[in-house]
Amino acid sequence: MGLSTLRNVGYRGLATCVPKTVISNMDCPPAMRSERERLVRNIGIHERRICYPWQCFSDLAFIAAERLLEELNWQRNEIDALIVVTQSPDYLIPATAIILQDRLQLSHATIAFDINLGCSGYPFGLHVLGAMIQAGAVRKALLLVGDKCATLHDPLFSDAGTATALEFDPDAAPIYFDLNSDGSGYRAIILPVGGHREPPGVQHFIPRRDEHGVDRLPYDLQLDGPAVLSFSTQRVPPAVTQLLAYAGAAQESVDYFLFHQANRMINETIRKKLRLPEEKVPMTLHDFGNTSGASIPVTMTARILEPLLAGRKRLLMSGFGIGLSWGTALIDIECAKFPELIVA
Amino acid sequence: MPDIETFIANFQTAVDFQDPVEIRADTRLTDLQEWDSLAALATIVMFDMEYGKAITGHHLKACATISDLFALAA
Question: Residue range A31-51: average pLDDT?
Answer without folding.
Answer: 93
